[in-house]
Amino acid sequence: MSGAWGAILRQPVLAWRLQGTWGTWALLAGAVLGFCGFGIGMRDWRAGVVAAGVSLTALVVVWWFQLLGSAIRQNEPALACLIPHQRRRIVAVVAWAWLAGSLAIGIVLGVGLNHFGYALLAGAATLMYFAALQRLPMLALVPLAIIAVTQFVPLLPLSALVKTLGETAITAIGLLVLAMLAPPLARLLFPRGGDAHIAWQRQFVDRAKALKAAQGIPGQEWTVWRGSTWPDRLYFADLRRLSERAAIAPWRGGRADVLLMALGGSAHPGSALLGILAVTLLALASGSNLLAAMGLQGSVVQLCLLLLVMPLAAHLHAVTTAMQRFRAEQALLRLSPAAPVSADFNRRLGGALLRRFAVVWLASTGGAALVGAIMIPGVQTQVAVGLTAALGLPMAACLVRDYASMRRLSAGTLVAVLAGIVALPLVLNGGMALWRTHAPWALISGLALLAVCVIYYRWRRMQSLPVAFPAGRLAND
Predict the structure, then answer these.
(1) Model's pTM, two decimal places?
(2) 26 closest CA partner among 68, 58, 64, 61
């Protein structure tokens, strides 16, 4: 590769080599193992092609993110204005990469699924969605809206329209719509200079730094979430209440609650509680459509995932990322006269974190039990909700840890979390199939008691560790 075009394409390759090539080789190995496992082991070559196609699709998406990030960084305001045709070359490279990636996804999935048109359209829409997500982080809520619409709202007229038009017409119409959306999206991602371009470039660089330090996900920065949102209003109301209490009387038991104010509004339980309330009301309003579409066991599993697993995991992620994001605030609060003494700091902080987690856990368990009792009454719902609540308790043990030596989120942790989320539906389906007449309350109580013992051990161990604030000061990475 040489010349201006080669310089543009060379940057993502160099970034890939600097970040490590293990992810690419792992996805390629997954494609080979999936193809051989299903094809040779189960004599189902079509399933092997689909399994390999999923891994290769993930590889295309990873490379698409790499190319997009490199192209946005290369389109700096000064370069876009001073270098002739720089922006046009970057847009052309991204456009050709979008076409090539869409075609690759269509081929690897279309061969196995025998629907090349739908696979091509899905691949093109997915890559364009990820590109739009770079500039409009609020689009991350689109998958949740699609799930809600497809599961809770009957789509019989749309299904009839799809059958009438056929795969070829649907693919042609979809690709035409995406082609019409491509030019405005290109103008959003690659401006031509000016104040808006400078602000967008600064926002993208700050977001990339935050992701590299495992400080958040796209859309979590303070440049996106303002203090006027409802979760932040709850946080500021709580902060005002604690400040007024401190002005009236000396802090005694409230010191630990004040420590949590250094984590910002994202770690406040108000966000999780509002989400649990919204999902509970949505399930009570439209749960019959979900039950008709997914059946009894599928509806129960979906209920446990939405009302128990997701709120607890989101709260855990919010606290962990806030610990790394607000280190300056933690250092200032640590030096204030109101802070607990060093010997008692971790005990109070760990207790406050566990109390917040208990509030979210009780709210999610209560919401799941309420929806299950009203919409899906029966022993299987009791089994699923009880098992999920008991298995969700150990997440609290991750909150009482050595924050002073906290490192960036590792790939092994992400793999373990994804494996747990994938394995949970299997455990719930097995439990519902095994206990059909009575709920194993003794087993559920034993799991909950074991989780409480682990949490207590971790909390006591945390008291002998270095002071938590500011987090990550002893980490060596």
Answers:
(1) 0.59
(2) 58
